Each structure stands twice: as structure tokens, then as C-alpha cells.
């Protein structure tokens, strides 16, 4: 299956009088891994919910290969898009294998049993997340990290060409974090993933979008986006950014203490919608001394 193009255009989401997301645009080209980063409450999950069709846009739209995701038949969208979300999975009285087998549902007709190919895909998905040994266990009795890996396996079994994940490394030990992100990196799919760990985002994502208070305030490659300046402005932290000598990816080291005036912008940055194409958009003033690379 070839990867899918995702375009979020001028998306605004509200809950009552509260803006969850305001005029957000982003693109993910086929096969790209796009990271969503930003502080708690900045709108990452809300944006993802609109993409996987749980939270209806007030204005703007979500396009999947050019088609409005909210107008597509649910089943057709489910053959394209899989989601791994934070709140899913509680209270599922099924075995692990049965949960992963649910990933095959969009590809089958009502009452169809598992084919040999389904069984192969379910087994491969379990193997991929190191959960083959859990197949017969009750899903409800798994640890948080085991459950998370099984939900990722279910999404893999769905064979999506667009995969949307909300903090997929939550609960995972470092070995399984690296494994899961490595799998996402190698999938023949487009990936949109919310991550809190900026070093993992820097290493595994092609491009990042930075959200703050429901708006995109910067986007671009990790090296373009992850500067001490931006980290001071968005998270209010002091950080140093170096290029890792082996991976070539930006590596952020956080330091105690408030950011100093030298790396704090004087005025809040104006909002400028993120743009498609190469090169990042950052409304933040130039960092003294130029790029961190
Ligand atoms: N249904 C709702 N009604 C009112 N406010 C909401 C609702 N859903 C989310 N919010 C608020 O909208 C903001 C964005 O929430 P969201 O969950 O999208 O942020 P997030 O970036 O995913 O946060 P986190 O990093 O903590 O997971 C938060 O302030 C949240 O409290």
C-alpha cells in the first residue's frame, strides 16, 4: 500500500467558548514522519482527534489524499488511517490476539473469519512490538506499557497508509520506545505523531510542528525548529542544542534555571500559519549566533 498525503487546512476546534486549536495548517507528504510537539494543553491531542475523526472541525478541513476525511465513509477511512490514542483500550475484555485481530476488521466483510493472511499479519504485528508472548493474555490485565504495545500492534495489523499516534511511547521503557519509533520510521506509511520527548522527536521525525496555546508557532526540520530560543519561548526552559556526532540529529540538553534574557525573545512572536514545502517557519526572532547546527 502506498503512503497517503495528509493536509490539515485552517483547522479551528472549539469546546464551548474555548479554542482548543485555532487556524492550524499542516501537511504530511507521503512517507513522512511528522512530529507534533508542544507543552501540555497546547492542542496536540485535539488536533489529532480531528484527523482521526472524533472531534469535528468548526472551520477548516482535514484532507486525506485530497479528500475531506470528514466526508469519507468511515470504513473507507479505516482502510487508510489507523490511530493509536491515549485513552483507548480500557475495559476491553478480550485476549491480546483478539485485540490485535480487530485491526483487520476494516479489510473484511461482516462475519468473515480470519484468513491465513490475517493470521500472518496479526502474528507479525505482535512480533514487531515484542508482544507475541502476550497473545493469549487478557488485554485488561496487562501493564500500561504492554497495553500500549498491543494497541500499536493493532494499528500495524490494520496496515494503514496513514498512522496517527498520540504519545505512543507513553509508559514504554527506553528499549521499547526505540523499537516502536524505529518501526514507525520504517513503515511504508505517512505518520503523524505527538511526542513529548524532543530528542526522540529530533531523531525520528522528518519535520516538526510546534503548538502553543492551540496555534502552530513554528515548523520545519528538527534542526530548524529545536533551538534554545524556541525552547525558552515555548517551554520556558534553558536548553543547549548540539548536533549529535553519530546521528547528525539535534540533541537537546536541558539545564536547571530560568532562561536568561539572552535567549528569551523580547516580545511574544506573532502568529504565522505553518507553510508547506521545504524550510521551516518560525516567527521567533533569529537566535543570536545563528543556527544550532
Ligand atoms: N472537551 C473539552 N472541553 C474543554 N476544554 C478542553 C476539552 N478538550 C481539551 N480541552 C482543553 O484544550 C486544551 C488542549 O488540550 P489537548 O488535550 O489537545 O492538549 P495536548 O497538547 O494534547 O496536551 P498534553 O500534552 O497534556 O496531552 C487544554 O487546555 C485542555 O484542557
Automatic annotation (TrEMBL):
Question: What is the originating organism of this protein?
Answer: Streptomyces malaysiensis subsp. samsunensis
Q: Name one GO molecular function term.
A: ATP binding
Q: Which UniProt keywords apply?
A: ATP-binding, Nucleotide-binding, Transport
> Residue ranges of region Disordered?
255-293
Q: Which CDD domains match?
A: ABC_Iron-Siderophores_B12_Hemin
Please report the stretch or stretches of sequence annotated as the ABC transporter domain.
Answer: 6-238
Name by which UniProt lists this protein:
ABC transporter ATP-binding protein
